[in-house]
């Protein structure tokens, strides 16, 4: 029996496929169960054991005795399992922080958007009556021709009044990038076509 154990270790040290086949048959299930004690996930436990076997092969690991070999196996599985859990905790914390930051940004953007619209409509309310009337009809999706017909004015008057409205709104809303950017977006959107 002692000779069998030493030939197994010799086979592992020399990377004999039969020794690695024996390693799998004799230790795989036990190591997976050991890892599950830490992880509570069979898939993660199997991955850790498979990674260990692959690492042993790639690094051409050598062992002096069967007890040192077993100690290496179980210590490696324990350490890999604890590292996995640590990584999961770090990942969870990162995702929580990311979600929290996203919620804050979204709330801030909602507030900014509401403020932009409040300033936009305040600026529209300050437009001269006819200019405001044309601009609001245009915001409702009316074409230049429809506005001209509805108000009994020329298409050129509609275009001129829209340009004046846009210029006035930009001036009233200030130089803040977001506000001007909104005006630019509105200017290039259906509202200002």
From TrEMBL:
GO molecular function: DNA binding; sigma factor activity
Keywords from the UniProt entry: Sigma factor, Transcription, Transcription regulation
Entry keyword annotation includes Transit peptide: no
GO biological process, one term: DNA-templated transcription initiation
Recorded coiled-coil stretches: none
SUPFAM superfamilies per the UniProt record, alphabetical: Sigma2 domain of RNA polymerase sigma factors (SSF88946), Sigma3 and sigma4 domains of RNA polymerase sigma factors (SSF88659)
Keyword field contains Iron: no
InterPro entries named among the record's database cross-references: RNA_pol_sigma-70-like, RNA_pol_sigma-70_dom, RNA_pol_sigma70_bacteroid, RNA_pol_sigma70_r2, RNA_pol_sigma70_r4_t2, RNA_pol_sigma_r2, RNA_pol_sigma_r3/r4-like, Tscrpt_reg_LuxR_C
Pfam families documented for this protein: Sigma70_r2, Sigma70_r4_2
Family per record: Belongs to the sigma-70 factor family. ECF subfamily.
Descriptive protein name: RNA polymerase subunit sigma-70
